[in-house]
């Protein structure tokens, strides 16, 4: 069913774009076959590795598949819009406007161009984004504290060791106090990704590198990956917290497992356990891969929640659907009660749909500031 759903846009393109073109049947048949092959990218990924989440092809082929798949997706959307306009025109006196072949050529060229831009935006090392967050009762020792959020790295054939090394170099150059990674670090087994994640060993921050699992960690040898992350020098916050200190001042950094964890027989997402015995009065920064449980975190007194998972919605228009699946949260900062929720667009994204048109990838540096108290007369 999964592969059939992704094949529907291709069938629509074949019927409504390719079919009416004045080409020889043999040529149209060859192009149709190529389109069908491209549309089944996820089937070939599953056959290559046993999982649609880990295509084990050469990087250039993964990029080519994403470009072709994206072009089909965009072309289907464009043709659907044109078909709706054509249908509506039939209701207008003197309407029923024909759709010339030149329009089909033009939309195909535009779809291919936009898809190329979308893939380029997806696979680049992301630019830096600075975000200032005001926190009530932030201790003076943490006023101006900086932390870097990485999320949804999806280290894979598409985001290999060379890409990871560049991300690490840019992260270390920022000289932040803390680095946090909010899940979905990998796509693939430990055996296939060991070399690609190795550069993460070099991440450096004064208060360390801390991470939580995302939903993709549960697709691939969860226990082995958690152990390996620790061996790389990254501390795992799975339903627990740590206390960061500057002299007598304290800041709580808490992390939870993914909301999907219990479906894999692993410890369920447990915010209460993560906050148990945290110092009273110390502001809490929570790492939670998915943003949709933010209201509960706000009720528990969390000051700042950092999430990912949505990839920012990836494409303008598609982001609205992604938001609906994530409690209305998709990209950027939200005020949830007295808490700030930040939903990161992602350092990278799933190599099965590596397209970005609108929401950019980001290396996100946060600066914490004490919220000014309102004056009373």
Name its key features.
377 residues; six-stranded mixed sheet; transmembrane helix; elongated; UDP-2,3-diacylglucosamine hydrolase activity; metal-binding; Purple Acid Phosphatase, chain A, domain 2; 38% helix; 2 domains; alpha/beta
Q: If you had to describe this structure to a student in words, what would you say it looks like?
A:
The chain has eleven helices and twelve strands. It has 377 residues and is an alpha/beta fold. It has a six-stranded mixed β-sheet, covered by helices on one side. A six-stranded mixed β-sheet has the order 6-7-8-9-11-10. Helix 1 (2-18) packs across helix 4 (59-89). The longest helix is centred in the N-terminal third of the chain and has 31 residues, at 59-89. The protein starts with a helix and ends in a 7-residue tail after the last strand. The mean pLDDT is 94. Keywords: Hydrolase, Membrane, Metal-binding, Transmembrane, Transmembrane helix. GO terms for molecular function: metal ion binding; UDP-2,3-diacylglucosamine hydrolase activity.
